[in-house]
Amino acid sequence: MGDFYQNGIITTLHNLSHRPLPELEQELLRFSRSRPMGLILPSLFSELEGEALPAIVEHLREVPYLTEIVIGLDRADEAQYRQALEFFGRLPQHHRVLWNDGPRLRALDAELQAQDLAPREQGKGRNVWYCMGYTLASDRAESVALHDCDITTYDRAMLARLIYPVANPQFNYEFCKGYYARVADGKINGRVSRLLVTPLLRALKKTLGEMEYLDYMDSFRYPLAGEFSFRRDVLTDIRIPSDWGLEIGVLSEVYRNYANNRLCQADIADVYDHKHQDMSVDDDSQGLSKMSVDIAKALFRKLATRGVTFNSETFRSLKATYYRIALDFVETYHNDAVMNGLSLDIHSEERAVEMFAQNIMTAGEAFLVNPMERPFIPSWSRVVSAIPDVLERLLDAVEQDNKEYGPRA
């Protein structure tokens, strides 16, 4: 059970009473009459064959208030797309599967690429971006939630608490970030958030001085959570990264576009676990190593847009400051774990800190070598300005795929 303390400059909506799920869902069903709700699920085909997604779909079948579910499917051939249509066919809500590797969406993507309007690399960011475009095109949902497909502790109460702040007509929130304690199987997880993001934000404050943007980012209890919800109009102007900086990029974009009182974070789960990435200590092109580089670069780029000047000396000072702060956090989390009867391996924690410290330098050097890198996918408003009928064509491509490859009536 959370407390009622408000930390930082973003409203925190706690789970103070474990309100019964039927009561929450009944309210959401009432809200849906005036504010229809949707859900975006970015998925790899391989997740259909795992344990998490089949269980998630079973939970979603019982959700009464969703008007639409949009599934982005990556890394699937034709047979696998057909399998996905059958797999998600058990959902009673209106739903569509975007076959991102299919010929129709590939053709549209190639046209956007030719005008430098499409995502430049594969990944979750690209998947989410096309799902956002379809959501705009279908115009079925006013409030939309997004969560990952590898959550092994999923419960539909998580979705109810995630979408409630942007679904309640009496609230004025445009965006809600989910958070939770990353504790499962007797261990404290969430190393990238605990040992990279928070210490790095504190180190940036010490190195660069206090600024509202850093206070804002430091207000989120779990900034790397892949669960967030938003009002439909957020989708039009947001620019998201296509790499592991997605979550940091989304938070930065809503900070740029909205006043702080239109943003919030909500406690959505007591227990949360998902598929874990390898550390990849010796390879910064994959695993947590790549993730840490992308996240650090996302922060540096955003600070540069706010007038911060970086050089090699800045990054050396930042690395040293980060390292000391992060090591102190290792002790803090160890003591917290011991008091709660949980395990925490100090050696592996400090190895992670050492890798993250090196990757801060790697990210800094990459930023200095290529400061004009454009990692953000253009906003849908820009794409529509260049190709006015693009959303209608995206909608038509998805409908044609569904009609051609779907199960025969």
Secondary-structure class? alpha/beta
Lateral strand order in the biggest sheet = 1-10-6-9-5-2-3-4
The H/E string reads EHEHHEHEHHEHEEEHHEHHEHHHHH
Please state the CA-atom Rg, rounded to the nearest Å.
Answer: 21 Å
Main sheet overview = 8 strands, mixed
**Strand tally, please?**
10
Q: What would the average pLDDT be, to the nearest integer?
A: 93
What's the end-to-end separation, in Å?
A: 48 Å
Task: Give the overall form.
Answer: globular
The number of helical segments is 16
Organism: Kineobactrum salinum
GO molecular function: transferase activity
Keywords: Transferase
Protein name: Glycosyl transferase
Fold and architecture overview:
This protein is an alpha/beta fold. It is 51% helix and 12% strand. The chain contains 16 helices and ten strands. The protein has helices spanning 21-31, 45-48, 52-60, 78-88, 103-114, 124-138, 156-167, 191-208, 212-218, 234-237, 246-257, 287-305, 312-339, 346-369, 380-386, 390-405; strands at residues 11-13, 37-44, 66-74, 94-99, 143-146, 175-180, 183-184, 187-188, 228-231, 263-269. The strands form two sheets. It has an eight-stranded mixed sheet, sandwiched between helices. A two-stranded antiparallel sheet has the order 7-8. β7 (183-184) and β8 form a beta hairpin. α8 (191-208) packs across α14 (346-369) and α13 runs antiparallel to α14. The longest helix is centred in the C-terminal third of the chain and has 28 residues, at 312-339. The relative contact order is 0.15. It comes from Kineobactrum salinum. This is Glycosyl transferase. GO terms for molecular function: transferase activity. Keywords: Transferase.
